[in-house]
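Q: What would this complex look like in 3D?
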Amino acid sequence: MAKKPLILVTNDDGITAPGIRKLIKIMNTIGEVVVVAPDSPQSGMGHAITVDSTLTCVKIKVDDGPQIEYKCSGTPSDCVKLARREILKRKPDLCVSGINHGSNSSISVIYSGTMSAAIEAGIEGIPAIGFSLGDFSWDANFDRLEKEIKIITQNVLDNGLPEGVVLNVNFPKSENEFKGIKVCRQARGNWVEDFDKRVSPSGKEYYWLAGKYELLDKGEDTDEWALSHNYVSVVPVQFDLTAHHFIQKLNNWDL
Amino acid sequence: MAKKPLILVTNDDGITAPGIRKLIKIMNTIGEVVVVAPDSPQSGMGHAITVDSTLTCVKIKVDDGPQIEYKCSGTPSDCVKLARREILKRKPDLCVSGINHGSNSSISVIYSGTMSAAIEAGIEGIPAIGFSLGDFSWDANFDRLEKEIKIITQNVLDNGLPEGVVLNVNFPKSENEFKGIKVCRQARGNWVEDFDKRVSPSGKEYYWLAGKYELLDKGEDTDEWALSHNYVSVVPVQFDLTAHHFIQKLNNWDL
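A: Here is my prediction, written as structure tokens for the whole assembly.
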């Protein structure tokens, strides 16, 4: 029998979140699992790293199972960096992040701690996948994602991923059976903020960030289209942010 | 005379940093300036947003000049969102972020609070530029960047930027005269971390993130090449992260 793959598991909702606990259980059936995840929720952290304060990383046992686990005081990106340099004896064969409580489709990939962990792994040359479910609730039904997570994970282990590419996988919230897995592009859209302005007991004004997502894309090849039609969406994500198509035009500017 | 453009200025080093003070002075010569910037340093915050705590935003006067200024308790992305939705009466004609104390070339664009502010503005449909100087010191010489900042800014105001594209401008640290402005792509490279592990007085282990940049790209069309040859680098940056080149291959997987 071939050697089991070494799989690094992380997330941004924190190491005790039901989403990561389910992902660990699934990964235990596929490989040797090491978990390095934040000790507290890190949602909306984007690709933050801890540059001006210290990090702690402590071995713990959250539940039964063969996995080895560490909780880390930092961001999802910090977790991947610490895992790679300080905890894992060799480069893992795969990094999976999630399962996020909430969608990371369309422009949300930019704000996503889940995807920042996957991208950090990708930067390190580790094949990586972020998994997210479009349901924010703590007791969302993660069991029904198992089949598709196994299929996608096995495909990545078998086929690898090209340099500079990681996968952003999103599951629709609907409890109906998934229609299938669809390869997509990131839908154009943005969050229209509607700040909730309040006044503190001492008279100071403060804000809560609130808002709703606005889809600006009518394409039927996007992750938003797939999710709204009950498909599991898979978007290949790159971290070369160069807008190559604009370089030639820019060269004609009077710079 | 045409109406002056409305320019939003922000950064990630905090509203009192010499880099943003210089940028404000330059922008005052070009347009009507509103500053909404973090009240404390936010370096390495990537595209973080504040979802689970409150934000404050207070009008202040940091120094002389016609600009209107607000300090905000949030991240650079929060500042742009607050400016757009709560502070500015209309959509600004331009958003400039920086001047960052330290380089944001190559893969650093991913971790950069400076660039996350520019990208956030881009998502809102505002032409945006991030400016960074490859010198971390507080008293770096920002005066010598004035000419190129004016040229690039005026070009963006005159030509606009296509939807989904913002500019990442970096200046070399060298005190020699710049050879010119060069349009580039983002160099492939990564940060190789070397965590500094220490023990607290109470016996707890903790880490400091440290590391050095490793260039993995021999191209002469990259920002790293340009900077090391004393050019000012301009990389067009997009936030559609889809790896379009990999979609067809992915469609052949057994999903």
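A: To summarize the key features: The longest strand of chain B covers residues 94-101. Chain B is about 25% helix and 25% strand.
Q: Very helpful, thank you.
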